[in-house]
Structure of Molybdopterin molybdenumtransferase:
Amino acid sequence: MKSKRNVYLKMKTLKQAREILFERFSMFGTLSNERVSVPDAVGRVLAEPVTAKISAPNFHAAAMDGIAVKAENTFGASEARPKELIVGRDAFYINTGNVIPENTNAVIMIEHINVLDENRIEIEAPAFPWQYIRKMGEDIVATELLFPQNHLVTPYCVGALLSGGVFTVSVRKKPKLLIIPTGSELVEWRDTKLENLKPGQVVESNSFVLGKLAEACGATYIRHEILTDNVEKIRQAVDDAAHSDFDIILIDGGSSAGSEDYSKQVISDLGETLVHGVTMMPGKPLIIGEIKNKPVLGIPGYPVSAIISFEQFVRPLICRALGQPDIEPQKTEVQPIRKIASKLGVEEFLRVKLGKVGDRVVATPLPRGSGSITSITEADGIIRIPNHVEGLKDKEPVFAELLRPLSSVQNTIVVVGSHDNTLDILADELKAKHSNLKVSSSHVGSMGGLMAIKRGVCHLAGSHLLDTEDGSYNISYIRRYLPDTKVKLVNLVFRDQGLIVSPGNPKNIRGIEDLGREDIMFINRQAGSGTRILLDYRLRQLGMDSGSITGYENEEFTHMSVAVSVLSGMADAGLGIYAAAKALHLDFIPVVTEQYDLVIPQEHFDSDNIRILLETINTGEFKKRVQALGGYSTEKTGTVVSD
Amino acid sequence: MKSKRNVYLKMKTLKQAREILFERFSMFGTLSNERVSVPDAVGRVLAEPVTAKISAPNFHAAAMDGIAVKAENTFGASEARPKELIVGRDAFYINTGNVIPENTNAVIMIEHINVLDENRIEIEAPAFPWQYIRKMGEDIVATELLFPQNHLVTPYCVGALLSGGVFTVSVRKKPKLLIIPTGSELVEWRDTKLENLKPGQVVESNSFVLGKLAEACGATYIRHEILTDNVEKIRQAVDDAAHSDFDIILIDGGSSAGSEDYSKQVISDLGETLVHGVTMMPGKPLIIGEIKNKPVLGIPGYPVSAIISFEQFVRPLICRALGQPDIEPQKTEVQPIRKIASKLGVEEFLRVKLGKVGDRVVATPLPRGSGSITSITEADGIIRIPNHVEGLKDKEPVFAELLRPLSSVQNTIVVVGSHDNTLDILADELKAKHSNLKVSSSHVGSMGGLMAIKRGVCHLAGSHLLDTEDGSYNISYIRRYLPDTKVKLVNLVFRDQGLIVSPGNPKNIRGIEDLGREDIMFINRQAGSGTRILLDYRLRQLGMDSGSITGYENEEFTHMSVAVSVLSGMADAGLGIYAAAKALHLDFIPVVTEQYDLVIPQEHFDSDNIRILLETINTGEFKKRVQALGGYSTEKTGTVVSD
């Protein structure tokens, strides 16, 4: 099974690799042009400077409703000595936009004339020459430049072009991409029945993501059918593409150095490999090549790698082909909520959630793996950590490139703390009625939530910390860990915690006491989570030693991950909420009903966003949806349990 | 001719009018939904929350190329005591993305194994459990919320949806607009031959501008054919539309209170007029109405009024119908280059050009008339001057809403001063090679340019100021007016100035000395322009009194406007450059060849942008295009004439 492996050429930095690409394809921008009607030109790029064919207005026009007069005939008119004008001789009724009659050079507003009879009017003030007249060419003069070449046509431009007598324009042709998805594991979504999906099969999605990204920056794409990891087939497809009218060819997948990675071989066979491997993360296994003078890129198969590769290499190529500047993301200063180490010698694109808490924008890192598509769909921004930097400090502001408008970041409610499935329902209900608001949750456990409040990096925290002395929840922890912070405690739900086990409970687990059995593999929650505290409390009550539990050291961060561990057979049991077990059709052995509250610092409690959030929690819709999950009680939902 | 006139209802403020509109149509957001494939959902809005159907990965997968092992079997391996594993029993070759074989729980990278033979390998370090494995559900857990309702689908989202087993989604239907252009003066561009266009006829463009703006925010539009100002026809069209499947109806034109403005009458007859007249500028004559529970808006006919009305009223309505927040323009702090008075009681949308000069973004106001479409196509931003404010002070920073990205504003070269047609060619040549750069010219005359440099609100100024003592250009003025500013003087062109007269010179004008003739109407340039200084100098030389010249007090700001005045018959002669006369096929009587320079402060001279601008001036392409205009000499073009 082990066969020939490629070897990376000397890796290039992102900057070097981009320079190599842009230098080699500097003839871009010479793609051919096409003529389109002006309304159809919106979103397209002018291939030539466009000059006006006619003036606008194309005549002297009335700018008001009223009468047209020769200004000189009105001189001397005053309230004391009004001047009479004969309609049809000295004065001509006229509406806005009408042509000024010959021998007139001013308009008097209708409101300022006294009508004496059908033929005579009176004015009480003189008109000065050219008053209320839009002079010919006032807006656009024939022959003048309307827009330079490489100008991106907007809806507004349509008005200026048509008004200037320009009805068709020459625009740059859209660069045409071929995207070839490769990989024996890939299946077409159109052909997929989920129930038949086999382990190891993956629904192909990158080609659509890349294609839609290409469309968004002005290109078109054709998607090749999925190719298995068959070097001959891939070679044939790339060769065909190089000989047809595609401007850029992307081979998606197989760009790495594995035994079944053929992109490099194909590109080298048919043309030249210019770069293999870029010191960036995600996106390291990128290939830049040239076949028949066309750029051919080997795009890594991991989704975030594919996206970063596209945005760093393919998009600028498209922009150049269209005579457009690279798309520069808006940047804003943010503060990472914690220290983040990063590898020296690699430029990392760290995806972060952003939210404005107080007067700072705080950045919460998302999973860093290239395979996590949700790490970019959930991201509000990207922090670039350069090659020579070892990471971010937690108090030092850095710049983030924004993936959403700053206004969205400013309207994000940052929730950090314990994980609960009802937070998703809350996010959805909020978005239903208040589409400008967003809830961004990070799951770091209840203690992590309190610490986030202490450091001022969230608006509120979800918490279910059991005081094992008196059976109360959260209050004593807040007193201990947030002595100087005034907070309000609002109940979100009561919920059932218990053991999540395989359907039918094949190992016949009856409770916590069985976790010490040798045949049971446990999956734990991270230290500092309320669930972990609950477990440890129960173990102490039962006099059990955590060392006796197999898998105690294996930690997950959410209830759903615990449930997945059980579902996949990685573990036999884990402590978690009923909703997680139910979602994945697992069995559930109740252990305790616990109180899950929102801890809200007073300084945020009165803000508009939090007020709306609390209103939403108190709606019947929210409570109904929570109850439908099962394992929840909403009796005290939305009530302030302590302040 | 004078007939019944409408009367405005009590005018509303912008805020009041918006509240009335949004309150009346608060049921928006209940438009119907449709199901589309996930790739086709990009740019659409989710009508329902979307949860994952499968996990991603849907199995435990290798995250690296290597061998899959049971971690426990590797414990104890070290460099000193390597551990041997049997391929096919203890170790299984595996590529990235492959399913982890049963009874294995870790992957060792291919780089870290020693192959002993086909069946045996050796490792020198232990594997910890789950290393280099992407666990089932690591990215997406089945049943979890992927995106809430009202989420706008991006290309990235396609990846998460397909990976989560979601292949089709329910999205909000695009709101459907009918746009009815009305006005007897309007003609269809498709039917228009420019040479047959009669004075008073106007090429209809608003409907396309509004339609394309509607498309840009997620709606679709149907354009009605142009209707003349015929109340019956308009009534019929609006009634038909109200009875069909349109969601929003726009009547463009005829919204004011003139004798041929029928929109209000039609809306009131068929339904109810809620607002007529809004205290904003442009856009005052807006009508908000309701027919059959549908919003029907009377949109003013002036192009900028139409655009502002759309963006303030129609776009938010579309956003609401799509469950989207209003589009919030990015704002930036700018400094107006001069004091700007504004009317109390009216909210003005002042269009401005923006450019970064030094560390400030300076704002140059564009023409304020609602009829000037170029005032919005050329604008980089809009300064909103509230009802209760009488205007802007010149040194006081204000916020501008951006119409282009800030990066574009930062790459704008701000040219203020004398007008010359070659500046357009320069702008075009620059954009051809450096699409990220923009030239923004404001024409305030040569002296205005020097004053702009003095106040630090431009990067360079065009100037042709004749020293009437020694015949030199610019240098003595710079010494006098910019004593403390170090500047470089670069020649742009030498150019012919002369009298622009009608074709065939019907009044037989031979030179400046004829301007005193009683039968000649002159058109002048504004005080402070180099051309005005030249004229006054010549008049003194000739011993002529400016009072003897009819039209001396009529001023235009550019050579092209002077030429238009002659073309339109408003004037018989004006002093201007040959290029302007030639462009409009007018005759030209040479008076003088003059030097036109660029005055560049030293602090900007060495910047990248100015360097590129000067390089462009020195290219053969630029000089050739300038020569083709006629009346120019490029002998010294691009040379530093003084520093």
Summary: Chain B touches chain A through 130 residues (CB under 8 Å). Chain B has five domains: 14-28+175-321, 33-56+139-172, 61-134, 331-410, 456-642. Residues 303-321 of chain B form the longest helix (19 residues).
